[in-house]
């Protein structure tokens, strides 16, 4: 369980996150949505200890986050943030084994154990990368690389997954595949996941809770049907939206209405 | 816990060829080390004075204590001139290659290299100040060289990190600025020296293995072995840092601690090398690049393998330097630069 209690983060005098609370529970997926600059990525980094909260507290399994060491946190919280630097040759397997770093013994010189290899094989299978373990990361397509980044995060076996725009730059099929995989981690392995996304419809389909942020503050926090309303989304994005039911799943479906096209 | 222990029949997962292993690292490094030892003996036979092969090998094996049939002049040339010079070349090459490989991983830049970043120049300024102001104190040279290297490292690192982080281009530009600034400091300090020393000093500055002392040789060897081991011990952290500082932090690397260890260990390596032999350039660029090309990107292999290969590279380069226009000699730095500069341009063009 990972929890933010009244967290405020300031960059100098600029307020990036203002008094935000949220709770990640095992088995549940929370989506964070909101316009650019709303403080979504700052929130992810703060939850993981990468940024210090100016006020408020992060609680990891009933204890304040700053009482854990770096590797203790890395065994409990996995982050998918940005694409890796690819100036050096690294195979997919080597990359994914990076997720086992925090499990190494005292001397980080250590080589991976048989257990580490088994774990890598498992996540490579889950992310459909089994046949690519030998390939260089730089040779993969965008979708495959994004799966490798996710595989590395899963290899940490952390119970809390924080994903910052994991579907950016992916095509339709891959977007859904990535989120379905995270969803199954929640359902099958009781992981707690937080996904930052710009795609309201993906959030609506996969999330149990949605945090809608604007200007660093919480605009709404609740189930998809409560948060994804024309009024709230209009407030957040200053755009008119149409919300109806998805023809198959019945979850809220969001359609922006562009004035230039004549509106309704 | 998310995983359930299941009795799996195939517990032997090998992933043949997809990753570096401890066994392969040990085999490769042992072979390289053996090659280096053979090379050291062979190269000690080459030079303007021809030495008997059997007698020389015997003399090296017994460290001059046995009777190997060498004349006292031959014994002096072999044991007091050539062998120390070759050993110095080996430790300088190992130091610069290990430092280069580590800087590259830490700074995520295949072009990062002690000489090109101005770190060697920082060490050179330190050495010069020690020579001019603390000439009688033998330990002052390596200590001042280390301080100069560390200060230059921190300066380049600060300059390279803008608000948007350090881009490769920014790092190289910062290196150029620090290098040219320190070069002008070197010119300034040179004017404080008397005219007779300037020539030998200029030679040293270009990278020269001939004018060292036993103390500096011992320091260079000890520092090379110890600091390369320290860097190799942090190689798994470097593997993650190489792919991004934030990701490494997220995966549990104590980023600032590892950065400090690498900066200090690499500065010690560069400092002790420069104090003994001046600025030998491009070793830290050429050698790690070739090692990665043939053995992959795992720093647990790259750091030790580059160190031993760097020793081979400089020993060979110095043998060329002292034989190609014999009886006159070239500074070894001239040979390494002739090989290194084209590779630098190639790497730059490739992006």
Please provide a written account of the structure.
The complex is a heterodimer of chains A (264) and B (351). By secondary structure, chain A is an alpha/beta fold. In chain A, 32% of the residues lie in helices and 27% in strands. Chain A has 9 helices and 12 strands. Chain A has helices spanning 40-47, 70-76, 92-97, 114-126, 142-155, 172-189, 200-206, 224-227, 230-237; strands at 2-11, 14-24, 29-33, 55-60, 63-64, 77-80, 160-164, 192-196, 209-214, 217-222, 241-245, 252-256. A 6-stranded mixed beta sheet of chain A has the order 6-7-8-3-9-10, with helices on both faces. In chain A, helix 4 packs across helix 5 (142-155). Chain A is globular. Chain A starts with a strand and ends in an 8-residue tail after the last strand. In chain A, 45% of the residues are buried. With 351 residues, chain B is mainly α. Residues 5-11 of chain B have low confidence and may be disordered. Chain B has helices at 22-45, 53-61, 72-107, 119-133, 140-160, 168-190, 195-205, 214-233, 235-241, 245-250, 255-277, 283-295, 299-323, 332-350. Chain B is globular. At the A-B interface, helix 2, helix 3 and helix 4 of A face helix 9 and helix 10 of B.
């Amino acid at each position: 369980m990972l929890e933010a209690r009244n967290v405020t983060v300031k960059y100098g005098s600029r307020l990036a996150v203002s008094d935000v609370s949220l709770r990640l529970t095992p088995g549940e997926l929370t989506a964070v949505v909101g316009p650019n600059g709303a403080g979504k990525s700052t929130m992810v980094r703060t939850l993981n200890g990468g940024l210090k909260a100016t006020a408020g507290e992060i609680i990891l399994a009933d204890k304040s986050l700053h009482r854990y060491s770096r590797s203790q946190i890395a065994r409990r919280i996995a982050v998918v943030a940005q694409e890796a630097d690819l100036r050096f040759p690294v195979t997919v397997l080597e990359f994914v084994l990076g997720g086992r770093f925090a499990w190494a013994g005292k001397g980080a010189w250590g080589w991976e154990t048989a257990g580490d290899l088994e774990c890598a094989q498992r996540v490579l299978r889950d992310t459909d990368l089994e046949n690519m373990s030998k390939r260089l990361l730089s040779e993969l397509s965008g979708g495959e690389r994004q799966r490798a980044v996710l595989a590395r995060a899963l290899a940490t076996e952390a119970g809390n997954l924080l994903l910052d725009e994991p579907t950016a730059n992916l095509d339709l099929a891959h977007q859904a595949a990535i989120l379905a995989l995270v969803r199954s981690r929640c359902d099958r392995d009781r992981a707690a996941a937080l996904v930052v996304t710009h795609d309201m419809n993906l959030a609506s389909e996969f999330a149990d809770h949605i945090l809608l942020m604007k200007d660093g503050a919480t605009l709404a926090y609740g189930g998809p049907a409560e948060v994804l309303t024309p009024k709230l989304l209009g407030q957040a994005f200053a755009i008119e939206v149409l919300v109806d039911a998805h023809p198959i799943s019945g979850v809220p479906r969001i359609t922006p209405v562009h004035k230039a096209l004549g509106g309704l | 816990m998310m995983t359930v222990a299941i009795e799996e029949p195939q517990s032997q997962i090998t992933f043949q060829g997809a990753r570096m292993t401890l066994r392969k690292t040990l085999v490769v490094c042992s072979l390289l080390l053996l090659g280096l030892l053979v090379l050291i003996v062979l190269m000690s036979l080459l030079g303007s004075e021809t030495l008997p092969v059997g007698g020389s090998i015997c003399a090296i094996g017994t460290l001059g204590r046995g009777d190997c049939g060498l004349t006292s002049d031959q014994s002096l040339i072999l044991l007091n001139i050539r062998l120390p010079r070759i050993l110095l070349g080996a430790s300088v090459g190992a130091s610069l290659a290990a430092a280069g490989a580590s800087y590259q991983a830490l700074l995520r830049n295949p072009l990062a290299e002690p000489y090109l970043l101005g770190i060697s120049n920082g060490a050179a300024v330190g050495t010069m100040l020690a020579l001019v102001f603390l000439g009688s104190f033998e330990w002052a040279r390596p200590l001042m060289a280390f301080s100069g290297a560390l200060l230059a490292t921190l300066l380049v690192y600060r300059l390279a990190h803008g608000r948007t982080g350090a881009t490769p281009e920014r790092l190289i530009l910062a290196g150029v600025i620090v290098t040219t600034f320190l070069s002008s400091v070197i010119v300034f300090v040179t004017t404080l020296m008397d005219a007779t020393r300037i020539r030998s000093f200029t030679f040293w500055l270009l990278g020269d293995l001939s004018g060292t002392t036993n103390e500096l040789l011992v320091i260079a060897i000890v520092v090379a072995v110890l600091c390369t081991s320290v860097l190799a011990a942090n190689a798994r952290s470097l593997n993650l840092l190489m792919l991004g500082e934030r990701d490494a932090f997220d995966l549990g690397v104590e980023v600032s601690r590892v950065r400090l260890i690498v900066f200090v260990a690499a500065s010690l390596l560069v400092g002790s090398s420069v104090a003994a032999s001046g600025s030998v350039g491009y070793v830290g660029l050429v050698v790690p690049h070739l090692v990665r090309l043939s053995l992959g990107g795992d720093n647990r292999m790259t750091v030790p393998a580059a160190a031993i290969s760097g020793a081979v590279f400089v020993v060979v380069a110095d043998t060329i330097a002292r034989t190609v226009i014999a009886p006159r000699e070239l500074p070894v730095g001239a040979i390494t630069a002739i090989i290194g500069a084209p590779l630098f341009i190639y790497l730059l063009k490739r992006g």
